[in-house]
UniProtKB/TrEMBL annotation:
This is CBCO1 protein. The gene is Cabcoco1. Pfam families: CLAMP.
């Protein structure tokens, strides 16, 4: 279901898709283990996507991405969403746990993710022959 939701159609042959699938799946199960509500899981997954998009699309450095994450997390406590709902989704302890998760997953391996998104690789042809 996760692969379908993320529109990952080449999990068996694409290293990039497999890594993205692992990243989001690990985040989802971590949030479930933290007993987040469905709304909190959705907010957490949005933060995972936000940090990854900063790296992949905006090509932010690690330092800039951490600053943007800090703004996003503190913004959650200060603003309301575009739909008008309250974004005060997480307690202080949950927020700290989220930051710890991001540091132990995406940020700890930032160079590897930069390589994944920004270094051109030759495509390997896989076959049964």
């Amino acid at each position: 279901k996760m692969a379908e939701f993320l529109n990952l159609t080449q999990l068996k042959t694409s290293l990039k898709e497999t890594i993205l699938f692992d990243y989001y799946t690990a985040g989802f199960w971590w949030a479930k283990e933290m007993n987040f509500s469905l709304i909190q899981i959705s907010g957490f997954m949005s933060l995972l996507n936000f940090a990854l998009e900063n790296l992949s699309s905006k090509r932010m450095t690690l330092g800039d991405n951490v600053k943007e994450l800090e703004r996003a997390v503190t913004g959650i406590r200060e603003t309301e969403s575009e739909e008008g709902g309250d974004l005060n989704l997480f307690s202080i302890d949950q927020g700290k746990a989220i930051v710890d998760f991001l540091f132990s997953s995406l940020f700890q391996h930032y160079k590897a993710y930069e390589y994944l998104f920004h270094v051109r690789r030759e495509e390997s042809v896989l076959s049964n022959e």
